[in-house]
Amino acid sequence: MTEKALRLGTRRSKLALAQSGQVADAVSQVTGRPVELVEITTYGDVSREHLAQIGGTGVFVAALREALARGEVDFAVHSLKDLPTAQPDELVLAAVPVREDPRDVIVARDARKLTDLPRGARVGTGSPRRMAQLNAYARGHGMDIETVPIRGNVDTRIGYVMNGELDAVVLAAAGLNRIGRSDEVTDFLSVDTVLPAPGQGALAIECAADNADLIAALAELDDPFTRVAVTAERSLLAALEAGCSAPVGALADLLADGQTVKEMRLRGVVGTTDGSTLVQLSTTGPVPETHDAAMALGRELATEMLAQGAAGLMGERAQ
Ligand SMILES: NCc1[nH]cc(CCC(=O)O)c1CC(=O)O
């Protein structure tokens, strides 16, 4: 007798289906049960407005969470960077699997890198975080680029480069990897140039807080280092009172001495989209051993960033 399938709630974009497919295989392995994909359309998928205008926070996530709350699906897979920092009581983040490459990349015409974009190059990105850091880099290096707000799925965005409308677009390495288009990357941006979004490159597997058996099974897919890193990054974001469409970057990484992990470094950035001002800070300390310690690290860095004027740089998105 075959066991009843677990229902995985997913968005229907190519990227979402690719990452949900990978998680489905992994969950099937650890539970021994078949996993069935249930496609759900979210507001972020149907709206043609710019993300910054529709508020950003949660537009890709709300419909999945509603399906979970109604018991229509057993668990949901999100891109962690799209997940609001507020966690509803009735749901838990049952697993955060090993993070992929967190970097942003560009896909440019003529195989160009950021440093050799032509004068006046039009660079597509709808993300205030990417705009702020790219414009700051351009200012600091005597470059002349124009960031152009765009939206749409990964294929649409790359299409703007292919059809000549734009010289380059900025995307997440992880997304391109997951849909098998990473060979189109022309430059992997150093995180010293563009700090990724909090949680970028990581996935979140969410399920109902009262589903103890499933929570226990999904825990096997959790990567403790990724979990602690994204917890600190998201705590920073929450303490800045910013959402996923705010010009905030954060990345926690582990500093190792040979094979032994020694410390964790948390970097944060916030800036104006024109790149005229950035507040960029970092802190390094023992790897947090608890959720609370990781949260505290993010809050501490946020406090320092706020002391340096971070709130004033977030414009109308700062609440
Ligand atoms: N905002 C959309 C989004 N949400 C997650 C990813 C893929 C990368 C990831 O999982 O972090 C992307 C596309 C992009 O930013 O290029």
From TrEMBL:
CC per GO annotation: cytoplasm
Protein name as it appears in the record: Porphobilinogen deaminase
Subunit structure: Monomer.
Domain Porphobilinogen deaminase C-terminal: 229-306
Lineage: Bacteria, Bacillati, Actinomycetota, Actinomycetes, Kitasatosporales
Superkingdom: Bacteria
Obligatory cofactor(s): dipyrromethane
Species for this entry: Streptomyces griseoloalbus
Membership in a protein family: Belongs to the HMBS family.
Single GO term (MF): hydroxymethylbilane synthase activity
Catalytic activity: 4 porphobilinogen + H2O = hydroxymethylbilane + 4 NH4(+)
The encoding gene: hemC
Domain Porphobilinogen deaminase N-terminal: 6-214
One example of a Gene Ontology biological process annotation: protoporphyrinogen IX biosynthetic process
